[in-house]
Amino acid sequence: MKIASFNINGVNGRLSVLLRWLESGCPDIVCLQELKSPDERFPIREIERAGYGAIWHGQKSWNGVAILARGKTPIETRRGLPGYLDDSHSRYIEAAARGILVGCLYLPNGNPAPGPKFDYKLRWFERLEAYAAELLKAHVSVALVGDYNVMPTELDVYAPERWCDDALFRPEVREAYQRLLDQGWTDALRALHPGERIYTFWKYFRNAFARDSGLRIDHFLLSPALADRLVAAEVDRKTRSWEKSSDHAPVWIEITED
Question: Could you tell me if 240 and 249 are in contact, meaning their C-beta atoms sit under 8 angstroms apart?
Fold first, then answer.
């Protein structure tokens, strides 16, 4: 079974890219981030014609997350993280699909740091940590998938010295990510590619993609029950080179059928 994550950076503006990638990659489950679309403008008809059912949590111009499943609509189990009832950002949606529980997330960027946006990012991380711990107690197959806006180590950023004060690389954020791993979650891409420089995001300017000046900020965190089934994890770099593509590349894993 193939599970993928793709920060699409505007689902309507890059719909042709999404449909092309779905056809070529044939993932079974897909997590999308940065829809930048209100719920009523999510392109469900086009996605269904491509063979996928979907649930989504949209927001006008910003944020937005969705889960797609090939041949069947995922069963929604949650939208929004617990712990902050007034949070208006569309950043988390969760569903049961093909026998696993999938949480699709788009963690706040947090810049500039320090400041209110960075404080919000840390609070969101705290809520994610608390909820992730509850999920582990259920002892089921869970994947927390998406754009974490975190480079966990120096290996995950092309020039670490340039990012020391950035909200994606500050110690507080990297420590929060490590606390998730310490709970018992497995970073799928890093587990299968230890010591290897792998990026999932390249800025649009300064020819960053051609120079491979990238960041690894899109992650799969797997519960122990699911990590035991992990057999592959890769980045679809070629998709980043397509015309009108997102500044992120899709990331995918393969797991054995239960």
Answer: yes
Q: Residues 144, 132: contact at Cβ < 8 Å? A: yes
Q: Tens of pLDDT along 93-137?
A: 999 999 999 999 999 999 999 999 999 999 999 999 999 999 999
User: β-strand 230-235 against 251-255: which pairing, if any?
Assistant: antiparallel
DSSP assignment of 123-160, as one string?
Answer: HHHHHHHHHHHHHHHTTS-EEEEEE-----SGGGBS-G
> Which domains, from first to last, does the chain contain?
2-255 (3.60.10.10)
Instruction: Name 76's bridge partners.
Output: 95
- Tokens 């093909």 correspond to 98
How much is the CA Rg of the chain, to the nearest whole Å? 17
The encoded tokens of residue 67 equal 């889960």
Task: Give me the active site residues, please.
Answer: 106, 147
Distance CA 113, CA 256 (A): 41
